[in-house]
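User: I'm putting together notes for a lab meeting next week and I want to include a structural view of one of the chains we've been expressing. I don't have a solved structure, so I'd like a prediction I can at least talk through. The sequence is below, exactly as it appears in our construct file.
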Amino acid sequence: MSVRLQPTMFSIACLIFVILNPSFSLGQEDPLKDPELYLKYDVKKGASLNSDYEAVGYWNGSVYGWQVTEEGNSVYTKLFYFEGMNIRSVEMQEDGSYVSLSREVSLYRDLDTGDILEAWSSVYTGVDREVFAVTNDPVNALLYPDSGMYAYTSQHSAFMGNFFLDYPNPLDPEEYPAFSSGKQYQGENIYKD
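Assistant: Thanks for the context. Below is the predicted structure for the 193-residue chain, given as structure tokens.
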């Protein structure tokens, strides 16, 4: 699977936010100057320019449920933890683009024990449900200098881009009709770093 980044209204809004940020200085010279250098810098932040090197990314956090009470108040409940990792290599092409090849997995963990969840009892319904690890394999992309939006302030640089996803759904609707979105999985990853 390959995706190409496209700017969207969200990306444009993020760029406007960065420009309107008080730390933004119009008098500050942008050391990266052009999209090619921004893309190279962004690749180096999350991988390596050496295509033989495999970079490891890691993330973790908590998953919350959200309900609105009869009084109209929002109530958030921590449901479980998640954590994941990504292995990635990037290779520059003759035209100045990059091919990013990676795989990733995210797991869900029990709040009390930290064990990987294979089943989870819903705090809302009491019903036990099977839990699946997120196994994104592959997570490949073609990255071009014009595939995202870049900004520079005196304190940081930013890349904003969107990955539009469309591939066969691993959660087969025949086997999981109540939970599958259909034969194709369609989604979007929105990035700002």
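A couple of points you could mention at the meeting. Residues 80 and 159 are 30 Å apart (CA to CA). Residues 9-192 form one domain.

User: Perfect, that's what I needed.
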